[in-house]
Specification:
The structure holds 2 protein chains of 2 kinds. By secondary structure, chain A is mainly beta. Chain A has no helices and 11 strands. Classes of the chains: A mainly beta, B mainly beta. At the A-B interface, strand 5 of A face strand 4, strand 5 and strand 9 of B.
Chain lengths: 113, 113
C-alpha cells in the first residue's frame, strides 16, 4: 500500500490564482481530512469527510472547497489564493473516526505571493 | 473550541537526559493521541490513550492520561538524537460529533549528541 499520497510537494502561486491540492489513499478509509500547519499554530482542521459524498467544515474552512466523489480521493481547492493561505497542507485518513489512527500524507508546501 | 495547551513549546537537551512534555485542557476528551513529526514529513502516531489514569509504554517513552481525561504527559527516558522531532498531542472530541481531532501546537524537541 502507498498509504496517503499528496501532490504536488511544493507549489508557488500568485495572489488570485486557483489550484487543487490532490490527496489519495489506498487503505479504504472512510474518514479523510485536510489540515494546515503554520509556525506556532499547530495543525488546524480545514475540512473533513466521513465518507464518499459527505463533507463538513472544520476550524478554518474559509477560502477552501472540498468534494468527496470516491472513497479514495479528497481534493482541496483554493478558489482565489491569498498570502494568508501560505502554509503546509496535510491530508489524513483513518478507518472510521477520530479515535482511530490518523495516517498523514507527506504534505504540500504552498507559497502565495 | 476545545483547546489543548502543550508545554514546553521548545526543549533542547543533551543525549541521555530525561524529559517530560505536557498536554493540558479544561475540556474532557474521549481519547488522546500522541504523534511525532520529523522535518518535511507528516505526523506519525505514537500512541492512543483512552482510559482515565491509563499508562502506556513504548520502549523509552511513557504516556499517561490524566484521571479526569483532561491532560496527558509524555516522558522520555535517556533521550537519544533519534528522538528529535515535533511532538503533538491530539484530543478526540467527546460527545456530539466524533469526527474531529483538536491538536496542540506541539513541542519541538532537540536532542544533542
Amino acid at each position: 500500500n502507498a498509504g496517503v499520497t499528496q501532490t504536488p510537494k511544493f507549489q508557488v502561486l500568485k495572489t488570485g490564482q486557483s489550484m487543487t491540492l490532490q490527496c489519495a489513499q489506498d487503505m479504504n478509509h472512510e474518514y479523510m481530512s485536510w489540515y494546515r500547519q503554520d509556525p506556532g499554530m499547530g495543525l488546524r482542521l480545514i475540512h473533513y469527510s466521513v465518507g464518499a459524498g459527505i463533507t463538513d467544515q472544520g476550524e478554518v474552512p474559509n477560502g477552501y472547497n472540498v468534494s468527496r466523489s470516491t472513497t479514495e480521493d479528497f481534493p482541496l481547492r483554493l478558489l482565489s489564493a491569498a498570502p494568508s493561505q501560505t502554509s503546509v497542507y496535510f491530508c489524513a485518513s483513518s478507518l472510521a473516526d477520530n479515535t482511530d489512527t490518523q495516517y498523514f500524507g507527506p504534505g504540500t508546501r504552498l507559497t502565495v505571493l | 473550541t476545545q483547546l489543548l495547551e502543550q508545554s514546553p513549546q521548545f526543549l533542547s537537551i543533551q543525549e541521555g537526559e530525561n524529559l517530560t512534555v505536557y498536554c493540558n485542557s479544561s475540556s474532557v476528551f474521549s481519547s488522546l493521541q500522541w504523534y511525532r513529526q520529523e522535518p518535511g514529513e507528516g505526523p506519525v502516531l505514537l500512541v492512543t490513550v483512552v482510559t482515565g489514569g491509563e499508562v502506556k509504554k513504548l520502549k523509552r517513552l511513557t504516556f499517561q492520561f490524566g484521571d479526569a481525561r483532561k491532560d496527558s504527559s509524555l516522558h522520555i527516558t535517556a533521550a537519544q538524537p533519534g528522538d528529535t522531532g515535533l511532538y503533538l498531542c491530539a484530543g478526540a472530541q467527546s460527545g456530539g460529533s466524533n469526527y474531529k481531532l483538536t491538536f496542540g501546537k506541539g513541542t519541538l524537541l532537540t536532542v544533542n549528541p
